[in-house]
């Protein structure tokens, strides 16, 4: 298959990789996009899958379907294990793919701050598998509490701890509070789900550090009114299956969710470049590697500095813009033009807390409550891929708004759950 | 928790168990329904989850939610392992539940006709896990074919065998043909999905043995026009991961689906009653056990004979009516009245083949094509539980009708799929 055309390989089908591939649709090149999953995942709504509000298929789109009309592009389902910069090859489980230009967009995973033993007791939220695992833990805790004769254990089953006060932690804590107070009402006979304690722990001085202090203050107050205890400035010292130890305190809770830290994809280690303490790769201003101008790094794996000197946050808009920019720079190179430096256009930040409650900072305009929530809904529906998904998600949201129900409360995939004898 | 009230335990939350529990809502008894899953599964649409047309959450409803207003009923998430008729106890993984009356509705699993080694290569379709596993196999076969340099292996990856010509086998074969011919169009660069062979194998003389011969003939013709090869009268002699061996023939195919036989739940072995060759329990005319009038068996686990002497088929309407009848007989006993014999009201049978194509036999009126297909749609939406699910399913069907897309093509849960390194 060598038709003489330049070969561009994109590794990763998240926001960075998918938007890069789309931006290459008119490039005079053969484009291959690899991902270990056959779908692009809309991570901003992953917390809704984790809390039963949406189904996995509704926030994911097959990469092939998205790119099917793009004749110069092929999709490869492959788990990339290694990048060989010298040979210009990408190695996956069953072969390798050569490249002339490479865009690496493999994102980030969880960081347990050196405590890998916490991973099995406090799952993080990055993949659909993570989301279904968290969902299973939340709903099974109530099932076990319903059938539990020991009041101390029942208390620990009813209580939830979310570690990390960024947007994901806030969204999860808010959604769990709504499940406890509203969704599960009248569902049980021996417990009152509304008696659940939901505790959001943040080591830093406040939640939502990426947003203005007054927005964080409003979010803290709103979470409190919804029944979430927000505890800031308290570092976690240990996490076990029975609970969470803090400096000077211990919270017995059987369900602990980790939203406290990320670490860039280990593929960054193959890129012969400096990395920051989160493992992100230091790139040149045009997003290429300093010693390999044919390799670009975008999204959560890239360490890109904003004009104020701070690294850009690991959010979808940054990844999309970087992906598009790397694609454009490759197209410029192919046209014999010099690359251009990347500049992030910050259109604002949003975080949702619950029903009719969100905070938004849109180019300095700060919104809270219903207006911010509507802005949040609009932006998320707009960027969700697939008309089919958009309508389904809007329907589930409208139904949930009217009834407090969550459309997909299935407990699936537990250890040994499907090996039983009863049917 | 002994308030002196009679305790009725229902084991199994399928059609039989759930409709029994619902029918007990006004009974002067404490009702407990146990299932190893937290949801009721609408099995007639399971093939659509297996082929990517619907998401798991759309054909399942939490049992707690369905029964939340029923004050005399509690739901227990429990994998029942044993029934102790002498002590009148149901034993599950973490305890036991005593009963005064018991309804056993644990259904059926697959039967591999003594060839358990076929199970891992040719999965059957009974649970959501089965459906996701079949979906993964179908879509991953195309992914592997796209990246396969060996023409013989590629051929085997593109070909599909469905074993068993009952309604499930027909539905699966028809849906796979639509995926190959329409859904995946333009999605690949190195293969043509429309070149897939889909072979439906039936050991008996014709497909759809439960329906009239002319309906089966129409279905065979329609399947042929859709690109499904129907082969009847050919018993399978071996199934391996490379293909299917028949008497006098061998079909290389990497994706084989088993829809050829069922076997009643092994819990039937605890019921001290005669069982037929499929493991179904012979019950008295009132659906109770001959030696244990306090124990009722309903649904696919029960062997109930129709007036024509043939056992009733393992379909949803039979299970629903039996469940309701057992509940009514318990209520009669509680009121000091004698039980009544069960009589099945046969409202007809339906099987769908594809777009605008189904066959129906409604009280002797035989329909084929669009009319039967609309009847099929109507009945399935009507019995699907949850307004939320009904709207979502109707939407996905309308969208699929207009575009040939399938809303949930995610490949999930494969062996080692989520353990990679790329992000």
Key words describing this protein structure:
homodimer; 423 residues; alpha/beta; 30% helix
Polypeptide structure, described:
The structure is a homodimer of 423-residue chains. In chain A, strand 24 and strand 25 (365-368) form a beta hairpin. A 6-stranded mixed sheet of chain A has the order 5-2-1-9-21-20, covered by helices on one side. In chain A, strands 13-12-11-17 form a 4-stranded parallel sheet. Chain A has helices at 15-23, 46-50, 63-66, 128-146, 151-158, 167-183, 213-226, 316-334, 370-383, 387-403, and strands at residues 6-11, 29-35, 39-41, 60-62, 73-77, 80-84, 89-92, 95-98, 101-104, 108-110, 160-163, 198-202, 228-232, 236-240, 243-246, 249-252, 255-258, 262-264, 281-282, 288-289, 292-297, 302-303, 349-354, 357-362, 365-368. In chain A, helix 1 (15-23) packs parallel to helix 8 (316-334) and helix 4 (128-146) runs antiparallel to helix 5 (151-158). The model of chain A is unreliable at 416-423 (pLDDT under 50). The radius of gyration of chain A is 22 Å and the shape is globular. The first copy, chain A, is α/β, with parallel strands linked by helices and 423 residues long. The first copy, chain A, starts with 5 loop residues before the first strand and ends in a 20-residue tail after the last helix. Chain A is built from 10 helices and 25 strands. Helix content of chain A is 30%, strand content 25%. The interface between A and B is large, with 76 and 74 residues.
């Amino acid at each position: 298959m060598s038709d003489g055309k330049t070969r561009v390989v994109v590794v990763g089908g998240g926001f960075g990789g998918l938007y890069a591939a789309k931006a290459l649709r008119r490039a005079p090149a053969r484009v291959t996009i690899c991902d270990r999953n056959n779908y692009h995942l809309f991570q901003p709504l992953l917390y809704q899958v984790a809390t039963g509000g949406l189904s996995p298929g509704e926030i994911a789109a097959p990469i092939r379907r998205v790119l099917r009309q793009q004749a110069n592009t092929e999709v490869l389902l492959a788990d990339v294990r290694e990048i060989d910069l010298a040979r210009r090859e990408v190695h996956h489980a069953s072969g390798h793919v050569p490249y002339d230009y490479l865009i690496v967009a493999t994102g980030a995973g969880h960081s347990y701050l050196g405590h890998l033993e916490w991973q099995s007791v406090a799952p993080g939220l990055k993949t659909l598998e993570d989301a279904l695992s968290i969902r299973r833990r939340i709903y099974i805790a109530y099932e076990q509490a319903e059938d539990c004769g020991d009041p101390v254990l029942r208390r620990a089953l009813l209580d939830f701890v979310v570690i990390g006060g960024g947007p994901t932690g806030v969204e999860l804590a808010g959604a769990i509070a709504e499940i406890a107070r509203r969704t599960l009402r009248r569902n049980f006979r021996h417990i009152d789900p509304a008696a659940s304690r939901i505790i959001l722990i943040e080591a830093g001085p406040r939640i939502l550090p990426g947003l203005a202090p007054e927005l964080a203050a409003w979010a803290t107050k709103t979470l409190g009114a919804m029944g979430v205890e927000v505890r800031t400035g308290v570092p976690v010292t240990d996490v076990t299956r029975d609970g969470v130890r803090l400096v000077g305190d211990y919270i017995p809770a059987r369900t602990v969710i980790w939203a406290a830290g990320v670490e860039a994809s280990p593929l960054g280690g193959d890129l012969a470049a400096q990395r920051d303490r989160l493992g992100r790769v230091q790139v040149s201003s045009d997003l290429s590697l300093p010693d390999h101008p044919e390799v670009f790094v975008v999204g959560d794996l890239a360490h890109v500095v904003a004009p104020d000197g701070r690294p850009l946050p690991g959010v979808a808009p940054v990844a999309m813009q970087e992906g598009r920019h790397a694609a454009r720079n490759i197209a410029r190179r192919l046209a014999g033009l010099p690359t251009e430096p990347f500049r992030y256009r910050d259109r604002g930040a949003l975080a949702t807390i619950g029903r009719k409650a969100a905070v938004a900072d849109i180019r300095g305009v700060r919104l809270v409550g219903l207006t911010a929530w509507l802005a949040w809904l609009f932006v998320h529906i707009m960027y969700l891929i697939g008309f089919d998904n958009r309508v389904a998600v809007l329907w589930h949201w409208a139904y949930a708004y009217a009834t407090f129900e969550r459309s997909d409360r299935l407990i699936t995939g537990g250890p040994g759950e499907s090996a039983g004898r009863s049917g």
